[in-house]
């Protein structure tokens, strides 16, 4: 095996410039070359990225997916449970002096604000101090805040710890997406990212069904059941933490920060595990990269990189996140109110409809994910966005014409969100792979915060009156607004999406620390 780290080495080859993926993408797939020279500093030449990308799928990769990806299930569980228990919390005897409007309004807004703040705060720390430290810290914040939410005795206590729960979850998005993309081989990166982000909806299904059991006063007292739902989130989080302790630091982050020998040893141990499992030698890695190690990158350089050097990619990221945020608010904001107001569905039964819709959301990334690695990012991202937008336009027409029942409307939503969920998950994939290594977590955090703010702040302001007015035309208009923004995002992807399938992260966007000529 080639030596991986050569102090003071000259310029190595680019990031796998001779790979099949590079040759097949032609000029459109060429990396955006740029350097930030650091005078009189040693360089590190390494093939660590190529070694990680050529690994076959293994039990080790499943450990990464389970340890890092399953936290999205907790996010889906959190959001859904709180929405479903709002009515119970406001009832006398719940043990918490709070109104339903405060749960779905103030507490929900604080959760969103916490998620946005946490993403930005922990995103910066993730780039500075490493993926592993932060994905352990953010999960610890989530666990502590959720546990303290379960023992709420006052509305202010509930509000504070809803904010802190969101703070931890927001930080998870930056730390986890960074680590996953940097550890998963390039041939599988698209489908794995989509599956992980789509697993939010497994949590949503669980939250919907769990709330039905936990709120049953024949099983649990009124002031106990809702607390146990939060306690269960803590238990699941602790199980995830046990697995996550075995997930290593990103070798890519290590060598960028001057810890090349440590990165080499870590990759060698992973290779040994996989070789022992497969019983066959691994193929030789192709390509090296030479970098000037840097401890940190300033905000000014990060902003210049994302919004000036990669302006077209920044526009793409914003379009994808805002489009999916508004579509989901058009459909899901006031979900129960729409079924109750227009189809006389009992409030206690809306959870069943939501569980069915959530299943459609999960199946999209699960069944379509592989195509993002084979058919390609551009066709799949633009296709899922445009198709879901067109289908939502059709749903709006059927709804306004009076052709739908509660069951058929839910079926329409399932089909729309089957494609929209794959598209929305690909938004996270996109912003995590199209910017340089040193800015990755911060870029994820920024676009996540923008999308979350659009969905959690602008969305409700736009859709609240429309979906709650009881007027068919107003609700149909809400659908059309979401569909329009989704289609515009799809057109943007058709023009600007990066052909990142099966390519190393370093060939998609060269690290800022790359030595001249690499």
Automatic annotation (TrEMBL):
**UniProt subcellular location:** Cell membrane
> Per UniProt, what is one Pfam family of this protein?
Sugar_tr
**Keyword hit for Transmembrane:** yes
* Gene Ontology cellular component terms for the protein in this record: plasma membrane
* Protein name per the record: MFS transporter
The superkingdom listed in its UniProt entry is Bacteria
Q: Could you tell me which PANTHER family the record lists for this protein?
A: SYNAPTIC VESICLE GLYCOPROTEIN 2
Q: Which keywords fit this entry according to its UniProt record?
A: Membrane, Transmembrane, Transmembrane helix, Transport
> Which CDD domains does the entry link to?
MFS_SV2_like
Membrane spanning stretches: 60-83, 103-122, 134-153, 159-180, 200-220, 226-243, 314-339, 351-372, 379-400, 406-429, 441-464, 476-498
- Residues in Major facilitator superfamily (MFS) profile domain copies: 64-501
Which Gene Ontology terms cover its molecular function? transmembrane transporter activity
Q: Give the compositionally biased regions (Low complexity).
A: 36-45
Q: Does the keyword Transmembrane helix apply?
A: yes
Q: How does it sit in the membrane?
A: Multi-pass membrane protein
Region of interest: Disordered = 1-45
